[in-house]
Structure formats: C-alpha cells, structure tokens
Amino acid sequence: MKAKSLFMCMMLAMPLGFTACSNDTEEVLEPEVQNTVKGTDTRDVDDRPYYWYDGHKEYLSYVENTSFIVFYEKDKESLYNSLSELGIDCSSIEDQEYNTRMHFIEDGPAVNYGEGCRWIKLDVAYQTLENKLPDAISITPLFTNEFNTPFALCNVFYISYGGPMESLEEIIKDYNVEIMGKMEVLNIYFIWCTKDSEGSPLDIANKIYESGKVSWTEPTFHGLGRSAIDI
Questions:
Q1: pTM of the shown model
Q2: Helix axis angle, 201-210 relative to 165-172, nearest 10°?
Q3: N or C: fewer beta carbons within 10 Å in the chain?
Q4: Cα torsion through 65, 70, 75, 81, rounded to 10
Q5: What is the Cα–Cα distance from 224 to 196, expressed in whole angstroms?
Q6: What average pLDDT does this structure show over 196-213?
Q7: How far apart are CA 111 and CA 92, in angstroms?
C-alpha cells in the first residue's frame, strides 16, 4: 500500500493520502472479469464510514463539526458572501491552492475541471452547509484514522479499470461524476465529483468497487498540515 500511495503522492501536487481497495501487486482485471469482494457480510449494520483495502472494509471516524470546501478562485467572493449570510465569520479564513493538474495519456470530459481551484477548512459541520453554498464545488467531511490523524476527503478518486474510457463512462453514469483522464500506469482513471454527485466521493468509490466491475477504487484525502498521509 505504501508503495502505491507514494506513487500517487508524486503524481499530485497537493498533499494527499491514499487508500487502496486491492493488493499492490494485483494485476489489473479485464473488463469482463469481476473482482471478488472478500469478507462482505450483508448483515453488517455498521454505519461508520469506510473504504476498501485488500477486499476488506477499513473503518474511519468523522471529525465532528468540520468541513472541507473546494471552490473555484473566481467564485471566492460569492462563496464568502454565502458563508457570511449563514453567520460564519470569514475574516480569518485562509484559502489554499487545490492542485489537481495532471498529464493524462487520454483526456476525459473533466480534464480541465481542476484548474483554478482553492480549498478552505471550516469548523462547521458539513451537513449544515449542504445545499447552501451554490458556488462550492464540493463540501466534504474530515475523518480520523486509528492514529487520530485528521484528514479531509477530496472530491477526486481513482478507478483501476482495464477497459476503454467509453465502457467506464457507462459504469459511472448514474453517479453524476466525470472522468478527468487516464494514467498509463495501472490503468488508473481520475474521477471528478461535485456536491451534486450522487453521494460523497467515498460512498461512490465504495459502490463502484462493490459492483465488481472494476479492479479497485481509491478515494483521496488531503492531509492537513502534513506532506502526505498513508492510512
């Protein structure tokens, strides 16, 4: 896991941590070959957030009353006005660059969506901001892992899929997400989510993996104040 996470960290300019849904040495599956989700129990009623690693669920914990907001720099003033209308003091908020620029071997419809983006962290529950910030690209929660390290859920996740982009578009069509592009290594596709997607990036990544139609999916996390986090 650490080796693949290091590879991902080098690909992105912003400090991300990565989780995996398969063994690092697992071969990429062909489109007609489904993965095997090991250890899945339909009686599992645990409602904690999770991601898949090596065919098993790894659970996370929410950081209460926090949110991670991604937006376009051109919409900053309008976004801050919306926050002010909700009674949130924006005078001390520090926004930072959210860089998802990549060089793909095959560009997708969302190849330029990550340009000119910024992010902020607020001490406000992300649920209270849903449907109230029209200028936000995404509004996601923060989590902690077993070491109580806080990190934010990003709006980009990866899919390892051995088929063509057109086939993957058919798999993801019901989630209101778009493909940024494809990397040559491991047949990795970058998927762009927004607040209007059908679920959070974490939930969508899980559902697509659980469909058995892709090799693995991998949500991305922003390590606040750290160079990278490998959970």
A1: 0.80
A2: 110
A3: N
A4: 0
A5: 25
A6: 96
A7: 32
Q: How far is CA 179 from CA 38, 109, 125, 224, in A?
A: 27, 6, 29, 26
Does 222 have pLDDT greater than 80? yes
Segment 183-189 shows an average pLDDT of 87
Residue 230, classed as helix, strand or coil, is coil
d(CA 194, CA 14): 18
Q: How far apart are CA 110 and CA 180, in angstroms?
A: 4
Helix (H, G, I), strand (E, B) or coil at 81: helix
148-161 burial, b at 16+ Cβ within 10 Å, e below that, comes to eebbbbbbbbbbbb
CA 228-189-162 angle, 5° bins: 125
Phi (first) and psi of residue 190, to 5 degrees = -95, 130
pLDDT computed for residue 54 by the predictor: 80
